[in-house]
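Page 47, continued from p. 46.
Same chain as before, 225 aa.
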Amino acid sequence: MDNLGDIAEKIEGRLNEKDALREATLKQCRDIIRCSRKCISLLHNDAVDEAAEMAAKAHAANASLKEDISEHPDIRTAGYMENASQELAEAHLFMAIYRGENLPSPEDLDVTYTSYLLGLGDVVGELRRRAVNLLRDGDVGEVEHLLQQMENICDHLMEFDYPSGLVPVKRKQDVAKKILERLRGEVVMYKKNRAVEEKIELLLRHLQKRQDESDDFDLDVNSVW
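Result:
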């Protein structure tokens, strides 16, 4: 057992190296998440150029990180890595939809299929948020276009019927369905309210016209007398 000390020292050195790499990875993951969320926030404010810059930063950070941990597959598939990849995928997917472009693939983003799928599920919520903002501005046509895109995403999400241990997509499916149904109801309610408002406006214009005609008549009579 004379060599046990050397073995223990070698193991400790390797673990210290692993621990330092893990800490650095956690920081980089936080940077990826921060840039991805900032990208989404900027898109909701129609700051497309700034959002693209944030997306590019997130993508570059992800590429650098994957290179740093290329020899550590256990870190590459860790939960915090998957969370960062999911946020990255969500930001890039939302930006592609916002711009009317084809969606980037998991390979384009260098993320796992699982994180891509979960990020796609989260995009539904961001599309609803954008649709609600557009609905406030009365842009029903664009809202209905977004609704179609949300339906398309949900339809494809529902095709994945696997155990949660393989891909935890069930919750994303349930949430996406609820969000979709909620937006459908909001669009229907908006159209109904708008129709009522238009009828009221028409009635008020008609009454105002009758009032103006009555006022004109009174003026004519007075002028005669």
